[in-house]
Amino acid sequence: MNKSLLLLSGCILFGCSSKKISPLNNVYQADKIESLTLEGDSNISTPPSFQKIIQIEGLESLVHNGFQKNNSWKVQLAKVNVVRTELGLTISGSKPSIEGTISWSEGREKTRESGFIEKTIPSWKGGASFNWEIDVWGKWKLLKESAKMHLIEAEYIKESSRIVFVNEIANAWILLAAQKEELDILKKSINSHQKSINFYEKKVQVGEENNATLSRQKVAFDQLLLEEASLLRRYEITKLRLHYLTSNKLNSDIPKIAKLSEIKLPILPKVFPTNALKSRPDLKAKEAKIRENLYLEKSMKYDLYPSLSFQTSGFILSSNLSEPFEQWKASIGPVLNLPIWNPRKKSELSVVSAQNEVFKEEWRASINLAIEEIESATRSFLMSKNELSIALRSSQQSSSILAVTKAKLEAGLVSQLELLEDERQFLDSNRKSIKSRLRVFQFALDLTKSLGIQWA
């Protein structure tokens, strides 16, 4: 008995030994990193917050409402809770288990001990058992670490979803601001064009213009109406999208929409790409997935080794519950299980080993894709700012031309039709500048997402 207890204690101590997985080689491809357009300070280890890059008044309340009310976001939180609950389920086999039974049945028996005399078996039976598998090799420790990695992976996936969710709200908000401002400009253009048609109708009446010229003006006017109707449709759809993201309702209160031209342009973040990649939650989730599977693989290897359990059991038989111990048996001691041949477990181990390579390649592919996303978003952001400067210059020139035409009209040097034509050109250049400004914001949002910029 003493030897058995000594052996049991030794196995318990041995099973408590630490089983570690070597760290991943997460050195990113230096040649691609060094050639990136984005320049940052390598001493800055933490990327700036979303609000430092894109400053939009009213956005904070919308994001807050989204986190509080949006059901799609609540699904992400619920998924993490499920994984956290599953953590206990995964390692439940490592904990002692106790079972009890009680039953009633009729029966008879003959045994050598009773001289083969037939006897009635007691009707009432009860029993209890205790079983605890000793973690000799650290199998259950590794399974616990694997489950922890799965929980960490779920947390990173949640953080990645959080970035995407904020990005969707911000994108809907700036798109709404751009569409509203463009609608205001379109209405002015339509009014201006209507005035031109009125002038042409008068000219046709007095014979100064023919009907073909008037018809061309009306066609151009209808095209403006068509653009307004299309833009109004997209504006309403964007508003519905924003309502859903922030409140799950088709109609709800949203902050006053500012003009996009009055919102401060985003700034290029000063963050070193390598540091940004190391902080991206989706990449960290894939790292956690690899570690989870490595721990699982190692634990499955130990599952093919002999295992040691500590078991106790006992049962009683009685014909009368008032005299429960008519017959009883009890046992206690260690049990050594020797797996001789288990093809299924070997096949499962091979599958997990093969899956490790898949996860590693997916992780490397994600890094390369992230590098491409950062470079694409950076170049698009910088080039769109150049496009915006050209559009603004054109708008300023159109404004100057319109001012000169107004002065000439007052001096009687030009007609009202020329003024209206210059006015429409000015409004059209304003619309183009709004579209260019929208692209700057959209590419800035793409850049924040590719860098894994978090909402503070």
Structure write-up:
The protein has 11 helices and 6 strands. It has helices at residues 2-15, 30-34, 50-53, 59-69, 71-90, 139-206, 211-247, 273-279, 281-302, 343-410, 416-451; strands spanning 97-104, 108-109, 119-120, 124-134, 307-318, 327-337. It has a 4-stranded antiparallel sheet. Strands 2-3 form a two-stranded antiparallel ribbon. Strand 5 (307-318) and strand 6 (327-337) form a beta hairpin. The longest helix is centred in the middle third of the chain and has 68 residues, at 139-206.
- In the sheet with the most strands, the strands line up as 1-4-5-6
How many DSSP H or I helices?
11
Strand proportion, as a percent range, falls in 5-15%
Mean pLDDT reading: 83
The count of DSSP E runs of length 2 or more, i.e. the number of strands, is 6
Main sheet: strands, sense, barrel: 4 strands, antiparallel
Rg, Å, rounded? 38 Å
Summing up helix and strand content along with how strands pair, one would put the structural category as alpha+beta
Shape: elongated
Q: What is the first-to-last residue Cα distance?
A: 62 Å
The portion of residues assigned to helices is: 55-70%
Low-confidence stretches: 1-18
Helices and strands, in N-to-C order? HHHHHEEEEHHHHEEHH
